[in-house]
User: Fold this.
Amino acid sequence: MELKLGIMSPLSQLSSRYVNLSHTLVACWITVIMGTSLLTARATELRAGLSKIDITPNRQVKMAGYESRKDFSQGVHDPLGARALVLEKDGHRLALVSLDNLGFYNGTAELLRQAILDACQLKPSELFLCAIHTHSAPTLSLDPEKSDPANVEYTKGLQSKLVELVGTALKRGKPVEASVCFGSSPVGVNRREVVQESATKSRIVLGRNPSKMTDREVQVLKITRGGRNNLVGALFVYATHSTSLGAKNYLISGDIHGIAEQFLETYYGKEIVAPGFAGASGNIDPWVRVLPDFRTNNGWLPEPVLLGTLLGEEIARVLEGTQIALTNLDIRTLLKTVALPGKEPSDSQATTNSAAPFNITAGRLGEIAFVGWGGEVFNEIGTAVKKGSPFPHTFILTHCNGAAGYLPTPESYSEGGYEVQSSKFGLGAAEVLIEETLRSLRELHDGVQ
Assistant:
């Protein structure tokens, strides 16, 4: 079901200016997917296909995440990947795609999505195209007038690789069992540190504020085949920026989420696929943040590796612990763009009459709900949706199908800080987003189609 609220979805306004997939590639993948669809479109059992593909740049590129970082990348610390889990039942599909990148800025969300939708014959609501938000990956762009040629070339290659990734996952669909399990990790911490400038004046800086409670839940969807101990995939969600590495780092890396993915796939074997997703983490950073490099002297363990492995090991622990088997495996999805209250870029508080678009994608797998938000949403907003959801388990995925920027909590506007200053959303935006997201979840839960 496709819904539109307030304004037309930017996902429907695809510009063909930069779409460069060859007709041969598209025709090839349509043939593959059509063949697969004929076999599985009416399957009454849950089927799943998983795939992963290397997307590490093979040449120097400009890196995303920090405006102060001007030079090209200088090497690769750990590989980047894209991972897909495609679920299917009764002709309904849910494609969850995780990309080791900062996000879909420079208008790339619509372009990359449309290439996948066209080639793989997915409905727009069935595709959750998400980024893990590592700040040590290439800048994505398909505009040769505004970006370096190396980055345009990389993004074009990524476009075709994502089509191949999702097409392969669809082709591999087989009967599976699904369960959920949960843990907790201290890797993420509230980053809005209060600095006292005088007895009467304070300000918010990006740092560490452990006194502020955060949602530390680690959510895991476990996929097995031929028995609940035969693991084939593990999707996980955790709320933190992947910013252990800062502007002075010039090595390509998946950072926290990427290293956790790599750890799980190494630990369980190369055939396992472990797509990671960033939860509601607009105001959450790793405990150790913005380092210049991977320090290794005198036995020092590099913090990105240490924290990424710590998260990965917690996921492995819960995979080996108690799981909740899913019995209702119905799949339903919806997509809508809502118009949230906007503000002037230079205004830290006041709401204007302008409307700022924000994409909400929602899907259900029986008792599990997936919420895809196209921006960097504060942790408390995600917690509010999880608590108000009609589903027993609600996974919040950010940097999904869009890149609308920061969406702060109401109290943050009077406090100020980087996220509030850079946000295009005004007071009232968080409340509208929570209301519209919960409305979407109720529609899925109650079977309104």
User: Anything to note?
Assistant: The chain is about 25% helix and 25% strand. The first strand starts at residue 47 and ends at 54.
